[in-house]
Amino acid sequence: MNEQLFWVAPVASLIALAFAAYYFKQMVKCDEGTDLMRKIGQHVREGAMAYLGQQYRVMLVVFGVVAILFAVLAYGLGMLNQWLPVTFICGGFFSALAGYFGMRTATLASTRTAAAARESLGGALKVAFRSGAVMGLVVVGLGLLNISFWFFLVRKLQPDADLVIVTTTVLTFGMGASLQALFARVGGGIFTKAADVGADLVGKVEAGIPEDDPRNPATIADNVGDNVGDVAGMGADLFESYCGSILAAAALGAAAYVGNEAMQIKAVVAPMIIAGIGILLSIVGVYFVRTKEGATQKQLLKSLSLGIDSSAVLILVAAAGILHVLGIDNIWGVWGAVASGLITGIVIGKATEYYTSSSYKPTMSIAEQAKGGAATIIISGVSVGMISTAVPVLAVSIGTAAAFFCGAGFDISNLADAGTLSKGLYGIAIAAVGMLSTLGITLASDAYGPIADNAGGNAEMSNLGPEVRERTDALDSLGNTTAATGKGFAIGSAALTALALLASYIEVVRIELINGGTKMLEFSNGMEAVTTKDATLMDFMAYYNVTLLNPVVLICVFIGSMVAFLFCGLTVQAVGRAAGLMVEEVRRQFRESDGILKGTVEPDYARCVSISTVGAQKEMIVPSIIAIIVPIAVGLIFGVGGVIGLLVGGLATGFVLAVFLSNSGGAWDNAKKFIEEGNHGGKSSPAHKASVIGDTVGDPFKDTSGPSLNILIKLMSIVAIAMAGVTVAMSLI
Amino acid sequence: MNEQLFWVAPVASLIALAFAAYYFKQMVKCDEGTDLMRKIGQHVREGAMAYLGQQYRVMLVVFGVVAILFAVLAYGLGMLNQWLPVTFICGGFFSALAGYFGMRTATLASTRTAAAARESLGGALKVAFRSGAVMGLVVVGLGLLNISFWFFLVRKLQPDADLVIVTTTVLTFGMGASLQALFARVGGGIFTKAADVGADLVGKVEAGIPEDDPRNPATIADNVGDNVGDVAGMGADLFESYCGSILAAAALGAAAYVGNEAMQIKAVVAPMIIAGIGILLSIVGVYFVRTKEGATQKQLLKSLSLGIDSSAVLILVAAAGILHVLGIDNIWGVWGAVASGLITGIVIGKATEYYTSSSYKPTMSIAEQAKGGAATIIISGVSVGMISTAVPVLAVSIGTAAAFFCGAGFDISNLADAGTLSKGLYGIAIAAVGMLSTLGITLASDAYGPIADNAGGNAEMSNLGPEVRERTDALDSLGNTTAATGKGFAIGSAALTALALLASYIEVVRIELINGGTKMLEFSNGMEAVTTKDATLMDFMAYYNVTLLNPVVLICVFIGSMVAFLFCGLTVQAVGRAAGLMVEEVRRQFRESDGILKGTVEPDYARCVSISTVGAQKEMIVPSIIAIIVPIAVGLIFGVGGVIGLLVGGLATGFVLAVFLSNSGGAWDNAKKFIEEGNHGGKSSPAHKASVIGDTVGDPFKDTSGPSLNILIKLMSIVAIAMAGVTVAMSLI
User: Fold this and answer.
1) A620/B562 Cα distance (integer angstroms)
2) Closest-CA distance of chain A to residue B659, Å
3) Mode of pairing for the β-strands spanning B520-521 and A520-521
4) End-to-end CA distance of chain A
5) A299 vs A295: CA distance, rounded Å
6) Residue B158 gets which letter from DSSP?
7) A723 phi/psi in degrees, rounded to 5
8) Is A415's CB within 8 Å of B369's CB?
9) CA-based radius of gyration for chain A
10) Which of A279, A470, B147, B497 would bridge A12 by S-S if both were Cys, CB 3.0 to 4.6 A apart?
11) Residue-wise burial string across A270-279, b where 16 or more C-beta atoms lie within 10 A, e elsewhere
């Protein structure tokens, strides 16, 4: 059989989609509760669909324009891969489709979760979690199905083509997924925080009504925002990482084993097979998640962890088996790379939990500082966030080193050897695949968060009893913890994926050089010329002078670092401006209709959703253009060496900055909750007021800018890959 | 004559010291004002000397231990340059001496400035600015005198030694300067903000007494802190950059012209000569700084700018002349590099002014956001700070590229050519020297700030009339603007200096390899072996695999980025903790003696100074150890390639992060002042309260962590250079 094991990937994808459909149907059958609950749910659902509709309309235009551009470059000027225009649209479409299913499920599930919470905690958890699993399974199912389909198709159509060409062609699928993720994550991130901040500033602070009060016109937008950010945004982000890592691994596998066809095909299908197994065992993990009535927060968290950890262990065992059956070379090396990735993911998750959960010292110390006022809580949150970058960065560094060492067959004494470097880089990409192999279930626990949050909002607005609210609160609080660790996981996997994409960039350049007629690489320093086809990665590095003493490379590293900060600053600013529009709208509604605050007139929820939507779409333009233009411009001005410098600078700084922003934000959030639980004076104490300021500052950090950086680092890589042909054709250096 | 022009350097240094002595004597002769003024001045002076005494005692121990360690490594194991133990102590000693003179002058000058302000604005400006010039001239004088002395001595003692060996030996002088800068800048930064925050929190907020009130026990410590941070700290930072850039340029010059002895010596002395000319023309610039009574803020700023800008223009003209006389190759290239550096410095200064002065949109928009409360002003300050990184980074990038292009003789078509790369890197180092050539006068305007600030404090505490206070306020406000632009200049020059040090690292490695007996570089990828002596920089890059696809290099770039954040988080945390001790002490004094608040009992100022001193010394231990250990550990574990990756990652991220922190902090500070001038409700409005929180958050950003990053990026480079022998000897990779 051997390479026929490839079929594990599409079959597992279909099974994932079937389970998603099954969970969806089960959820829809559940009781939706009272009329009021239904009505509120309806509002949120309509808002969410209105948001998606608007986003997809804008995307249709953008995708159309870019696709035409790509078509001109590809078919007119012959500078791009011929498949790019098609795979580009396909990648975007399926990512958007996954987002649509996830949002639809989440918004249907929240009322049902609230309704189930009237009966029991366990029942509510089951509804919420399995609905979250719909998103998880749809993302991995659609992602892997597409990859298998394109791989199969391109190979069928070009049966004699080298696998390097086939895999680098399929790699272009990532460009569409990446652009859609930009809309979902950056636009969504701005939407959710604009609505949140707007609702809080006028509702809580000015009008003095509680959170989730139906009299607040922005409250529905706020609830929609939770779904937009943590379901659609997170889903698109991870869809991109998932596909990107598998595609990059396939391309690097093909490159690492050039000249050994039997092994090459195995190296290419291995990441798909591992992903397929990961899907199946994620589904198994879903069944480990259950709880009993009156469970404590810790028990709830344990039951979620049990699901994810069991999946991880099962995947490790199964991967060893299937790699043996596949008969890949360096079995234990590839397996070690998978393990490195899985362990790195778990370490990052634990570190994130340590730095952002109020059960541990860092967040407690931030809460303590709240007693000194707003300034001291901000300062301590910033310092904790910055210090918290150490463990995730070291984890990724060690994980990367281990994966490289394993991938290279446990011998890296001669890096200049063509095989060592390529195989090691393949190992790094396999680590990314390994880390993301549990995505089916980890994303379930991410998407679970907003469902539980919205269920709580629904229970509040529908005046359900205190015991219901208590249950939804418990589920919501659990969701906050999983949201923080989920962010850590998303960042870590984005960093590994970007690293894998960076490594595969050179393979794409090689193909473009060959297509462009460059048969030999002629070195300028007296090294012997080598054929482009047989050049090692080190030859390419020498050819393009990609060393750290080349000022072009150095300058571009600087620029990459700066772009991460600039992008981040622009997204933070965007939230501020979009929130300002929301504040004005809510004030206007209160002013123009006295009945709203009295509760006799229903506010215009839809208008708030639409304002946030339009604001987010508008505000994401400038940062998005920067993310797309900079790698293209650097490629045209500085050539291949500059692009690699840019990607490394952006990746290194963006990764660390994202961890800092996410963890600071998460820690402030939980410090506030810790005070609300009655510590340091409890609610309405001066410490609480200070902590609210900390939380508000942290909101755009953790929900807009931090996650947007995941997109930036991957998008810059994928743009560079997509435009490699143009860079090679136009470059003067 | 030609290379005899070298003598311009020591002669100019001596002239600088003579002028410094002259200005000092003139200042001491000025009237010191009333008895109360004298007494307060006495307190601050005693506090400052107590701080310095304590710092120097700790340094004596640390320097002693490190010197012994170096001696063992150098004389016992033969792993280090034989001169290092001696030059190390010397570099530290003279940097400390410059700090001592500067502090002594500044603390003597503030009372005299206040006294002069009773008469006229122009007189007060003259006293303050010329006293600032003492610091500026002492730093450049002692720095350049030492460099010339060591260069002369080492050359005399080893008349036949290659200039590369001579210059890399003298380069070790930077290690001592760097370690002393660590104490002065990081320890000083923690001291100044601990005192400031402590004084404000208890004095202003709890006890409700105004700033600079003599009843506040921490007020003297606060005034001492201004001197500690902006005189001693800034001075040591720039002493290090100044020496580092000249030394690196000399080393790179020697390397670039190996084999052409006539030219080599010219390239080595050129940076010293340019620095010497810079000193002389800085002194000329001092005489352009004058103003008339009732000058507006803008006119005051103009008169300072006039001094600096005239110096810059004169230096450009004179440099062209002297380079002709020197008869250096590629005259216009070297001159172009000087110009690139000077222009980069000016652009960074202007950009900093734009982003931090309340005359421009960014800071005004932050003040506007204060109306929304503390959270919105923090968010907008963060976003402005992040966006503000774009121009300085682009300026340094373009300046670096231009300097490289000029240095390489306007032809970079063949980077692999040994000459092109070395000469280009020499150009980059020359740009750093050019940027810092105006240091005599730019540092004068930095050191002027705390003198004016303290003069204001003295006037307040001594109950001088409102017209005096008005004059000192005008001078103080000017000092705030120069402080912000001075920080930008310090960061930019630190980045360029670090870049030059990074480039010279490889030259040091070469010497160590030769000393260690490695006569040939044998490549592992089939390239022909070359002799270590004749190897090009590109050969070294190939030998050590310093390409961006080498995972070791990549991982170390990640770690470098992370260390910048970690270091920063630790210093922010340090301020919080040290300020906590100060708060307790002030509370204790108020509690234990009723007379203090009544004004009948003098508080124990000295104890506050001592608490801040001890706190700062203690809190700087952990971040300092990290800054020193990481490059050594990376060298031992990952070898030369890892070290270069680490330095690049730390430099890129540290530079951008420092700009962000400094500009955010500066903008918050001025937004607060803008509101205090009566905008958005003026003093005691809710907007003002919010802006005070912004300013408090910004304090450690701009005065501790941001400036500390300057030290980090240079210190890591110089540690790597000093330990190159150990890295080469021990490295397994």
Assistant:
1) 28
2) 10
3) unpaired
4) 48
5) 6
6) S
7) -95, 10
8) no
9) 25
10) A279
11) bbbbbbbbbb
Q: Which of residues 373-432 of A touch B (CB under 8 A)?
A: 373-376, 378-380, 382-390, 393-394, 396-397, 400-401, 404, 414-417, 421, 424-425, 428
Say how many C-beta atoms besides its own lie within 10 A of residue A440's C-beta.
33
* H helix count then E strand count, chain A: 26, 2
Which of these, B704, B674, B701, B706, lies nearest to B690 by C-alpha position? Answer: B674
pTM comes to 0.95
- What secondary structure letter does DSSP report for A329? T
Strand A520-521 and strand A530-531: the pairing is antiparallel
- d(CA B479, CA B224) in angstroms, rounded, equals 16
CB contact under 8 A, B569 and A386: yes
User: Which residue reads 């460059």 in tokens?
Assistant: A518
C-alpha A218/C-alpha B17 separation (Å) is 67
Beta carbons of A656 and B545 less than 8 Å apart:
no
Q: Is the dihedral of CA B671, B676, B682, B686 positive or negative?
A: positive
Q: Which residues of chain B have pLDDT under 50?
A: 1, 732-733
CA B440 to chain CA centroid, nearest Å: 13
Beta bridge partners of B521: B530
Task: Cite the DSSP H helix spans in B210-260.
Answer: 219-227, 234-256
Classify A224 as helix, strand or coil: helix
Helix (H, G, I), strand (E, B) or coil at A520: strand
The closest CB to that of A551, out of B416, B428, B570, belongs to B428
Q: Which residues pair with B530 in a beta bridge?
A: B521
Per-residue burial over B555-590, b if 16 or more Cβ lie within 10 Å, else e, is bbbbbbbbbbbbbbbbbbbbbbebbbbbbebbbebb
Q: What is the residue whose two structure tokens read 């002078």?
A: A545
Model confidence pLDDT, tens digit, residues B177-225: 999 999 999 999 999 999 988 888 888 777 788 877 888 888 889 889 9
Amino acid identity, position B291: T
In a 3-state reduction of DSSP, which class is residue B520? strand
Range A650-666 average pLDDT: 96
In B546-611, beta strands by DSSP E: none
Tokens of B217: 């026990």
Give the distance, in angstroms, between the CA of residue B108 and the centroid of all CA atoms in the same chain. 23
Has residue A35 got a pLDDT over 70? yes
Q: What angle do CA B306, B310, B315 make, to 5 degrees?
A: 155
HSE value, Cβ hemisphere, 13 Å, CA-based, for B55: 34
Domain that holds residue A383: 4-730
Q: In this prediction, does ipTM exceed 0.90? A: yes
* Interface check A549 vs B, CB under 8 A: yes
Integer Cα distance of B160 and B17 in angstroms: 33
Report the domain count for chain B. Answer: 1
- Token look-up 């989920």 returns A486
Q: What is the DSSP letter of B733?
A: -
What is the dihedral sign for C-alpha B170, B176, B182, B188? Answer: negative
Q: How many angstroms away from the CA of B403 is the closest CA of chain A?
A: 10
CA distance A232 to A450: 11
Copy the structure tokens of residue B104: 């002594």
Q: Identify any residues that bridge with B531 across adjacent strands, giving them in sequence order.
A: B520
Greater model confidence, B523 or A334: A334
Please state, as a whole number, how many other Cβ atoms lie within 10 Å of the Cβ of residue B322: 18
* Angle at CA of residue A655, ends A651 and A661, nearest 5°: 145
* Position A364, amino acid: M
Question: Could you say which of B389, B424, B548 has the minimum Cβ distance to residue A546?
Answer: B548
Which backbone phi and psi does A530 adopt, to 5 degrees? -125, 155
Q: Which two tokens stand for residue B25?
A: 């004597």
- Give the β-pairing of B520-521 and A530-531: unpaired
Q: How many CA atoms lie within 13 A of B143 on its CB side?
A: 36
Three-class DSSP category at B593: coil
Contact B12, B281 (CB under 8 A): no
